[in-house]
Design brief:
Blueprint lengths: L11 H10 L6 H11 L4 E4 L6 H15 L9 E6 L3 H14 L7 E4 L6 H9 L1 E6 L1 H9 L10 E4 L2 H6 L3 H8 L7 E6 L5
Parallel strand pairs: 1-6, 2-4, 2-5, 3-4, 5-6
Bound molecules: adenosine monophosphate (AMP).
Length: about 190
């Protein structure tokens, strides 16, 4: 059952980007997750890094954004992805940019240890996709440079690592500001309790 990407009904601009990346066959997590995420379902995915899990959520999320375009609203984001480290956050943002390169969405990454100014300017324009580490994200929420009241899709990546790093409280605070009516996608290398 080696499916190809064109069996999912993904936006043609995404198929074009995948072809230029040289991807032909979906990995198992992609084959399982893409149809459900495209349909708007919540998902708990158990997958290690290296299994193709980033594309498993990035492709159907980009498909959904493209199916219902909304002009960016200042200080908001339609999709929020939380990641434990700046390296992982940057990689995820790069994946969204490369898969979405024909779609023209606004994608930004936010993490600590760097200046606030460029991050504030990116948020001020309004975003389609924001990838962030929890601490700096909370700072922006407290400074009112970010408002999550229009966020439609929430992704928690490396959920087990986030909990090990003691991010439970910040994650709870962040999630409490996202509308209850949202799509939730959780990815973890091990089954979280
Ligand atoms: P990830 O598990 O998301 O970190 O992805 C691992 C690596 O596999 C990344 O370098 C991706 O670019 C690559 N990749 C993801 N999906 C596919 C695919 N279907 N075919 C070939 N390479 C892929």
């Amino acid at each position: 059952m080696s499916k190809t990407f064109d069996t999912f009904g993904l936006n043609p601009a995404l198929l074009q980007a995948l072809a230029s990346e040289g991807y032909t066959t979906p990995t198992p997590i992609q084959a399982q997750a893409i149809p459900d995420v495209m349909a708007g379902k919540d998902l708990l995915g158990i997958a290690q890094t290296g299994t193709g899990k980033t594309a498993a959520f990035a492709l159907p999320i980009l498909h959904r954004l493209a199916a219902n375009r909304i002009p960016p609203v200042p200080r908001t984001t339609r999709v929020l992805i939380l990641s434990p480290t700046r390296e992982l956050a940057s990689q995820i943002a790069e994946s969204f940019k490369s898969y979405g390169k024909h779609l023209g969405f606004r994608v930004a990454v936010i993490f600590g240890g760097v200046k606030y100014g460029p991050q504030e300017r990116a948020l001020q324009q309004g975003l389609d996709v924001l990838v962030a580490t929890p601490g700096r994200l909370l700072d922006h929420m407290q400074q009112k440079t970010l408002d999550l009241s229009r966020t439609e899709i929430f992704v928690l990546d490396e959920a087990d690592q986030m909990l090990d790093l003691g991010f439970v409280k910040p994650i709870r605070q962040i999630v409490s500001r996202i509308p209850a009516k949202r799509q939730n996608l959780f990815f973890s290398a091990t089954m979280p309790t």
